[in-house]
Amino acid sequence: MKRAFLRAEEVSEICCGLERFVNSAHAPRQFLSEGVRFKKYPWDFKVFEIPRCEGATFSGEWIHFTLWKKDLTTRDALADVSRKTGISMKEWCVAGWKDRKAITSQRVSVRAELEEKLKSYENGNSIRLSDLSVGEQLKAGHHDGNRFQITLRDFPFTLSSPDFDAVEALLDSIKNNGVFNYAGLQRFGAFGQAFRIGRHLIAERADLAVTVAMILTER
C-alpha cells in the first residue's frame, strides 16, 4: 500500500496546533466542573447546513427541500416523512447526518416524480419541510460545511464577574487557533481509529496524538 508521509513542517504545525488545543482545554474543564451545562435542551445546540452552490444547470430529475428537525436523528425524521407520504426511505439523499439532541436544518434530495407525495406531508412541532427547489442528487459531503449556534447554561458567575475574563480568553483562543475535531462521536476518521487521537488529547498527551495521526496518515 502506498505510504503518504507528512513533511517535517506539517508535523511541526500539527504539534503546535495540538499544544494550543491542550492548553486551551483547561478552562472548559474548570467551568464544566462548576455546573455549566451543554445541550441542556435541544434548542441549545443548533446546526445549519450550508448548501453547496455550484451554479450547475439542473436536469430537473431531482428536487431539494430543507428538513428542519428537533430532538431527532436525520434518519428518524426522514422515517416519519416516509411513513406519512409513502415515499421509501431508499429515495432520500443527504449530504450528511445531523445531531439528534439539537435543532438542525439540512437539504435533502429526492426524485422529482415524487414531488406530489412529498407535498402531502404535514409539518409538525419536531419536523418541518420547506424551500422546495430543483437540484441534483445530493451525495455525502455535498455541502459547504455547517454553521453552529451553541448555548451554554448555568454559569456560576455573571457577565460582570471578573471570572468572565477567562471565558473571553477561551473564546479568543478558539477564534484564533480553532478546535481540533478529532474526538467527537461522529468523527471516526480514517480506518475508524480517530478515537485514539481523541483519547490522547483528553489525557493531554499531544505527542502521542501526533504519533497516532502520523501512523494513520501513512496507511
TrEMBL record:
Record key words, sorted: Isomerase, tRNA processing
Span of domain TRUD: 178-219
One cellular component (GO) term of this entry: nucleus
Domain of life: Eukaryota
Matching InterPro entries: PsdUridine_synth_cat_dom_sf, PsdUridine_synth_TruD, PsdUridine_synth_TruD_CS, PsdUridine_synth_TruD_insert, TruD_catalytic
UniProt entry tagged with the keyword Chloroplast: no
Keyword Magnesium: no
One GO process term, biological-process aspect: tRNA processing
GO MF: pseudouridine synthase activity; RNA binding
Family: Belongs to the pseudouridine synthase TruD family.
Record-given protein name: tRNA pseudouridine synthase D, putative
The species this protein was found in: Perkinsus marinus (strain ATCC 50983 / TXsc)
